[in-house]
Each structure stands twice: as C-alpha cells, then as structure tokens.
Amino acid sequence: MSTRDAPSGAVPGDRPPRGAPPTDLELMLWVDGELDAERAEEIADLVRHDPRVRAIVTALQRGAQVIAEEALLHAELANVDGIADAVMDAIDADDAAASRRFIAPRKRAPAWRGPAIAAVSIAFAAAAAWTVFFPNQLTQVAKRTPGTDSSGVTAANEGESTTGISIDVVDFGARPGTIFYVPSEDESILPVVWLTDDDTPSSEDTTEDQTPSSEDTP
Amino acid sequence: MRSSVPVLFAAILGWVSIAPAAASTDGHPKGGAVDQNPPAPVPAPAAVDAEVTVIHASNNADAGIDPRIGKLPNIGSYKSYQLLSQSNMTIKKTPTTTTLPNGRILQISLKDVKDKQYIIDTSINQPGGTAFLPLLEVRASTGVPVFIAGQSYQGGMLIIAIKILSR
C-alpha cells in the first residue's frame, strides 16, 4: 500500500490507527513540523526504519529547501528589499517635506517691497506727467541774435504755462532779444522779454545814457 | 510676470491721479475729486482792463528802490528801481496805445480769450523809425504780469510790466 493513496490521516481530526503507514500529506505535515506529537513520533520512527518513507521525506525536505532558496534568489534579483527601502524612503521624504512646510513657511517677498515698488512707480508717473505737461518751465524759450531776419516771428511757447502766463509768439525785429523766466516771491515763474537797445539815445536822454552792461543782465 | 502686474497698475494709477491736476488749464492743481463736468464755455469779453507799469532801473545808488513798486522779481542787478508810471487801460480788439518815457509807443490789443486766458498782442514802435518790438503775443491770466525790459533810458533801462486785471 502506497503512502500516497492511503486514505487515513488525510483529513485533520481523523487520526489513523497507530502504526498505519503515513500518507503524503502526513509526511509533508511532519516535514513542516505541523503534526501532533504522538503521530510525529510514529512517523519519525518510520523514517528511521523505513527507507521508502525516509526517501519521501528526504525528497520533501529537499523540495522545500529548493523552493526556499529559489524564493530568496528571486527576492534578491527583484530587489524586493530595495523596493521596500525605496518606498520607505519616499514616505520619509514626504513626511519630511510636509514637516518643513508646516514648520518653515515658504520664503516670501518682504512686505515693504510691494508698496515701495508702487511708490516708485507713482513717482515715476508723476515725473513723466510733469515732463509732458510742463516742458518749458525754467528754460529759455526763445533767443534771437543780431543779424537774423527782422521779419521772422518766433513761436516762443510750445506748451502750456504753469504760471498763468506764457509767451505765444515774439518778433524781436532787428534787435537781439531773449525770453527768460524769473521766479517771483509767490514761487510762480514770470516771463521776461529782454531786448537790447543799441539805438542812439533820443534827444530827451542825457549824454551819460548808456546801455546796461552785460553783467547787469540776468 | 506676476511681479510686473502691480508695477503696471501702480504706474497707471499714478498717471491717472497726476494727469488731471497737471492738465488744469489755470496752472493750479486741483486736489481731490476730479471734476467730471466740463466747464461751461465763458463768452469772450470784448475788452479787459490791464495795468501798465513803467519802471526805470539804473545804477544810481542814491535813488534806491521805490517802495511803490512793491514786489518785483530780480530783473537785472541794478541798484535803483524807480516807478515812472502806473496806469490802467482798457484793452480791446482795436489797439490801445500809450507813450513811454523814451518817446516810443506801447501798443496793446486783445486778440482772443481762450480757457480763461487772454491773448494780447503787444508792440513797441518808434515814431518815424523802425519798430523796437514788432510783436509780442502773450497768453495771460489775470493778475500775472509779463515784463518787457532792455530799452535804454537815462543811464539805465526801462522795465514795462503788463498785468491783466480782473473785472
């Protein structure tokens, strides 16, 4: 009677009679150490004395060993531990990043930078507006020298005045002339049209009449 | 890109806040609210009063500065400024003339009125000779003088101030 087809002992709880030959299942359980002590003692006795049973047990042990070795080898080749380590490292990294996010907030621009940029921009816009609308302030707007065409007319003012007065057109004739602006006491700017009078003094003037020197001109 | 958005916004805001005041035609910035309604057109007056002041500037240290002149901007570095005449005249479309101390004729006319400013044409002519100042066109508001200087007169020069008066 083969141990493979022995009906006894195949079902747990259905204990075979004492001395009955072990089935393959019982031998596998014995190899795995999962039989109860009494039956395990009987099978151990059989293994010691029955070469056939011993050969089966040896084959089962060998098979189990090969399977275990193969499993370990595949685990190494597949870098199972590396995968696990990588997964754990990733989890640790995520935890660390989350911790940094909660512990150290993201670096932000200083609070004063926005208003400062806005103030500089407004100042720049104001300067641009001032330049556009008042291009002639504090600048000489027209100048004629002797020898220029006496009939020429100079368009002296190309922009709006900031003081409530401006020179639109001036014709100096044959004389040298210029226009300049002088500040008044109320901080406004007043235009002055200056012509150099190089004519002979009239009969009403005294002989000591003289044209103001250039040092006197503004 | 994100940082340039507030800069652009601020620049536009600054321009909008500055431009209306700067564009004020009377030269005085208007603070606060911007007038949404355009000013009603003012009918151009046919005449306007003006004050013509003639000052003699010289280096006569004994004369000093005439207190009747009042505030005078720094026109030349003369030691003496004496008031020769100060008169009001009505400026109309047709030229109004006055004789200067040196015999020349000051001629003033009202050319136009635009944006509360009076456009006046001025000339100084020499009787029997060439014009001293053929044309001076001034755009003036009331109370702000324009000065014409440089005519030789008695060892110094004449300073003529023309100021539009409010009616």
List keywords for this structure.
heterodimer, A: 218 residues, alpha+beta, three-stranded antiparallel β-sheet, two-stranded antiparallel sheet, B: mainly beta, four-stranded antiparallel β-sheet
Structure description:
Chain A has two domains: 107 residues, no CATH class; 71 residues, no CATH class. Chain A is α+β, with helices and mostly antiparallel strands and 218 residues long. Chain A is built from five helices and five strands. Chain A has a three-stranded antiparallel sheet with strand order 1-4-5, with no helix packed on it. Chain A has a two-stranded antiparallel ribbon with strand order 2-3. In chain A, helix 1 crosses helix 3 and helix 2 crosses helix 3. Chain B has a four-stranded antiparallel sheet, with no helix packed on it. Chain B has 167 residues and is mainly beta. Chain B has one helix and eight strands. In chain B, a hairpin with a 2-residue loop joins strand 4 and strand 5. Chain B folds into two domains: 38 residues, no CATH class; 118 residues, no CATH class. The longest helix of chain B is centred in the first third of the chain and has 19 residues. Chains A and B meet through helix 5, strand 3, strand 4 and strand 5 of A and helix 1, strand 6 and strand 7 of B. Strand 3 of chain A pairs antiparallel with strand 6 of chain B.
Write the layout of secondary structure elements.
The complex is a heterodimer of chains A (218) and B (167).
Chain A: H1 24-32, H2 37-49, H3 51-77, H4 80-103, H5 113-133, E1 142-144, E2 154-155, E3 165-171, E4 177-183, E5 189-195
Antiparallel strand pairs in A: 1-4, 2-3, 4-5
Chain B: H1 4-22, E1 47-58, E2 80-92, E3 96-99, E4 105-114, E5 117-125, E6 133-140, E7 145-153, E8 156-164
Antiparallel strand pairs in B: 1-2, 1-8, 3-4, 4-5, 5-6, 7-8
